[in-house]
Amino acid sequence: MKAVRFTRKVAQPLRPLSRSLRLRLILWYGSLIAVALGFFALLFLLLTTDAIDSSVNSAVRTEARVAMLDVLDDLAASPPYWPGQLTMRVVDTYRDPGVVVEVLDTRGQVRYLSTNGRRIPLSNQTTHAALAGQPPVLYDAVVDGQHVRVEALPIRPPVNGVSGNTNGVPMGNGPVVGVLLVAKSLAAQYSTSIRLLSLRVCTPRFRLYSTSAF
C-alpha cells in the first residue's frame, strides 16, 4: 500500500488591478456622478422656474386688483359710465417700477396709460375675449424693448355693487365697458433663470473634472 503524500501549495498573491481598469472605473464613477448631478440640477431648475413664473403671475394679479379698484372707483353706476378723465390716484402713487397699466373703452380709445412710452400690445382675439366678458387672459409681450407678462381683464361698472372673480380681482356686475391691461416686466425672472441655467451647466462639468483628476 502506497503512502499518501500531502503537498502544501503556496498561495499566490492577488494581482493588483491594472491601471487601465482602475482608470475605467474612475471614469465610470465620475460619469455616474455627473449624470446624477445633472438630473437633480435640471429638476431644481424646472421647479424654481415654475415657482418664479407663479410668483410673476401673482404679482401681476395683485397689480390688477389695485388698478381695477381704482377704475371702479371712478366709474358711474349708470351710462355713460366713464368720467371725463380717469384719475387712478392709487396706481399713480403706489405702482411698482416695471409695471404698466392701460385702460381702454369698448371703442379702443385709451382712457388711461401709466407711462409716456408705447402702449401694451393687445391682439384682436384677446380684445374680443375681454369685451365678451370672458375670464382674464395672461400672455407675454414686449413693451419698449422689455419682455412683460400682461393680464387683460374686462371692466364692468358697479351697477349693483362689486364682487370678486376667481383670482380675487374686484369686478362690477354691469355690462362690459372696457378692458384693463396690466403689464409687469420679466427682467428679474429672466435674470434669475439665466443664473440658474449657468449653475446647472457649470456644476456637473466641475464635478466630473474633479472626480477624473484622481
The share of residues in helices is: 40-55%
CATH topology name of the domain at 47-191: Beta-Lactamase
- Count the beta strands: 7
Span from first to last CA?
Answer: 63 Å
Give the radius of gyration.
32 Å
CATH architecture of the domain at 47-191: 2-Layer Sandwich
Please trace the helix and strand order, writing H or E for each element.
Answer: HHEEHEEEEEH
Report the average pLDDT across residues.
81
Shape: elongated
Q: Give the strand line-up of the largest sheet.
A: 2-1-7-4-3
The biggest sheet, with number of strands, parallel, antiparallel or mixed sense and barrel status, is: 5 strands, antiparallel
Q: Structural class, from helix and strand content?
A: alpha+beta
CATH C-level class of the domain at 47-191 is: Alpha Beta
Strand content: 15-25%
Uncertain parts = 204-214
Q: What is the CATH homology-level superfamily of the domain at 47-191? A: PAS domain
The helix count comes to 4
Task: Write a structural description.
The C terminus is likely disordered. This protein is α+β, with helices and mostly antiparallel strands. Strand 3 and strand 4 form a beta hairpin. Helix content is 45%, strand content 20%. The chain has a domain of 145 residues: 2-Layer Sandwich (Beta-Lactamase). A 5-stranded antiparallel sheet has the order 2-1-7-4-3.
Which keywords apply here?
disordered C terminus, 214 residues, elongated, 20% strand, two-stranded antiparallel sheet, five-stranded antiparallel β-sheet, Beta-Lactamase, alpha+beta, 4 helices
